[in-house]
Specification:
The chain has 307 residues and is an all-alpha fold. The chain has helices spanning 14-20, 23-39, 46-70, 72-76, 93-114, 117-138, 145-149, 151-165, 170-193, 195-201, 206-209, 212-235, 241-263, 275-306. It is flat and about 60 Å long.
């Protein structure tokens, strides 16, 4: 990690610190964490529940800030990330590092004091997983970085569930697994149409190292696995028919959209609506929708039992 982009050219303001947290990514993290909490059996006081979600958001934001602190030089070399606060020179690295450490520590401490110790431990693991295991160790070394590192983004529903129940059972593990297996096709679809950026900065993403053809086949393979996996919460009796139908339809559509990606021979830079972009866009919608279905199923089940 060099310091070639540590000079401050412009004063950082609150928007730069906010940008360090990757707010668009955090929205999905917070949503899946909230869904894990709402789908869990039992109840949680609204104030404690809000605190748990706040901690998940702060922890994710802290990890994102540490990721950008470490990767400032890499971000400077990529068109997609060159305008971030550090590579653009609006903030120095020390400020970004301290901000990330502060947010991360505060989130873990608050989760432990206000919610429960197990959720705080899992939150701490998720932060270290993303900021250290993925960012520092896996990403620059192996094309399997996003596969193994996918666990970092899979923790929120598990944390939300544990915030309510205080223990880990099969259902939250399955929610973790759904995001874990969703991550490679989601991220590799993006990597296919920004492949040149990763190649330029020497990051061994799958399309750069294994080539497009292999990446496309692996995207399809993960989508095949995701379909039965997404149905498993219903098969074990953890959800009702509403979730089952939604999971099947959403996962089947995901698989269908992966077929043209798998069959495509080239990136087709001239095609603004190429299959990779459609798959990437749908993948975000997929995760929002399947977790929303999980919550809707749980709410209807509770209402039915109450009546």
């Amino acid at each position: 990690m060099s310091t070639s982009h540590s000079a401050v050219q412009l004063p950082a303001d609150w928007r730069d610190f906010f940008a360090l947290t990757k707010p668009r990514v955090i929205s999905l993290v917070v949503f899946t964490g909230l869904c894990g909490m709402l789908a869990a059996p039992g109840t949680i006081h609204p104030v404690i529940g809000f605190t748990a979600i706040l901690c998940i958001a702060l922890g994710a934001g802290g990890a994102a800030a540490l990721n950008q602190w470490w990767e400032a030089d890499i971000d400077a070399g990529m068109r997609r990330t060159a305008s971030r606060p550090l590579p653009s020179g609006r903030m120095d690295r020390t400020s970004a590092r301290d901000f990330g450490v502060g947010l991360s520590a505060a989130s873990i401490l608050l989760m432990g004091l206000a919610v429960n110790s197990l959720s705080a431990v899992i939150l701490a693991i998720s932060i270290v997983y993303y900021a250290v295991v993925y960012t520092i160790w896996l990403k620059p070394r192996t094309p399997q970085n996003i596969v193994i590192g996918g666990g970092a983004g899979a923790f929120p529903p598990l944390i939300g569930w544990v915030a309510v129940t205080g223990d880990v059972t099969l259902m939250p593990v399955l929610l973790f697994a759904i995001i874990f297996f969703w991550t490679p096709p989601h991220f590799w679809a993006l990597a296919l149409f920004v492949r040149s950026d990763y190649a330029k900065v020497g990051i061994p993403m799958m399309p750069v190292v294994a080539g497009e053809a292999s990446t496309r086949k692996q995207i399809f393979a993960y989508c095949v696995i995701l379909l039965p996996l997404a149905m498993t919460p219903w098969w074990i009796g953890g959800t009702g028919l509403i979730y089952a139908i939604a999971a099947f339809v959403l996962s089947l559509a995901f698989l269908a959209l992966s077929v043209p990606v798998a069959l495509r021979r080239t990136n087709g830079e001239e095609d603004p609506m190429k299959p990779e972009k459609r798959l990437f866009g749908y993948s975000v919608l997929y995760l929002f929708a399947i977790f929303a279905a999980l919550v809707a199923d749980r709410w209807i089940s509770v209402q039915g039992a109450a009546s």
